[in-house]
Design brief:
Helices cover 26% and strands 24% of the residues. The protein is of the alpha+beta class. The structure holds 2-amino-4-trifluoromethylsulfanyl-butyric acid and cobalt (II) ion (CO) (2 copies).
């Protein structure tokens, strides 16, 4: 496996792209209310990225092999949708949980981040799933330091999810990121301590656990993109883009509105 290390110039540009991706989430937050359609959220984010930030929305027409081109500029995954939910006419309603996943390209570099949003009054179960998933992301982040292995990240996430009666989606993972949207390494959200690639300063990748309240199995909808839980249980996801530093990690997808890390028990 060849994992390119980022130099100081790469890192400076990755910081900018990461901040801009996070700022799209800050921008869209007040619009995520009962009655708004996911298509309207897509249009608002698209215009902000293109006209205000002078960025390219990386998902638009993204065409990994075996897929039709992705038709929108962001992903909106509601309730039992796991990831890659395609924005459209669906109206959000009170009680929904929705993930917005934003990837921008700025000066040739990608920043990739997602958050969960609670729409109106949500159930205790929905809020708990979002919180556990946020903790899973941060358990993974805290395993990021030189000398640790990718398996340490996966193990930390899997342990926390399963200890709370939730399951980890296996088919999608975090990924190296830089000039390319998805590059090596694959960052699995399950695994064994000490397994896999050893981390080195200058690596940059995302961690983006998809955690289901029910079983881990997924299906893909007929649109070719939207992934849902097979058992229709709720699913949540949070994502940050990280840099491995000499002493640990730097979160690249930070903005004024980035939620503070959870108190980790
Ligand atoms: N942003 C997603 C990720 O975290 C990928 C979305 S690909 C798309 O890797 F085509 F669905 F946008
Ligand atoms: Co990603
Ligand atoms: Co993403």
């Amino acid at each position: 496996m060849s994992v390119a290390l980022k130099n100081e110039e790469d890192i400076a540009r990755m910081r900018v792209a990461g901040r801009l991706a996070a700022e799209v989430l800050d921008f869209i937050t007040p619009y995520i209310r009962p009655g708004v359609t996911t298509g309207e959220l897509d249009r608002l984010c698209h215009d902000y990225m293109v006209k205000v930030q002078d960025c390219i929305p990386a998902p638009l027409n993204y065409s990994p092999s075996g897929h039709r081109p992705y038709p929108k500029s962001i992903c909106t995954s509601v309730n039992h949708q796991v990831c890659h939910g395609v924005p459209g006419d669906r109206k959000l309603k009170g009680g929904d949980i929705v993930n917005l996943d934003i990837t921008v390209i700025k000066d040739g570099y990608h920043g990739d981040t997602s958050r969960m949003f609670l729409v109106g009054e949500t159930s205790i179960a929905a809020r708990r799933l979002c919180e556990i998933t946020w903790e899973c992301l941060w358990k993974g982040i805290q395993a990021v330091k030189p000398g640790n292995h990718l398996g340490d990240i996966g193990h930390a996430i899997q342990s926390h999810a399963e200890a709370n009666g939730c399951s980890v989606v296996r088919e999608f993972c975090g990924h190296g990121i830089g000039r390319k949207f998805h590059e090596e390494p694959q960052v699995l959200h399950y695994g064994k301590v000490g397994a896999g690639l050893k981390l080195q300063p200058g690596m940059s990748f995302t961690i983006e656990p998809m955690i289901n309240a029910g079983k881990a199995a997924i299906r893909c909808l007929a649109d070719g993109w939207t992934i849902v839980t097979a058992d229709h249980s709720l699913s949540a996801q949070w994502e940050h883009t990280l840099l491995v530093t000499a002493t640990g990690f730097e979160v690249l997808t930070v903005s004024g509105g980035t939620p503070a890390p959870p108190p980790l028990r």
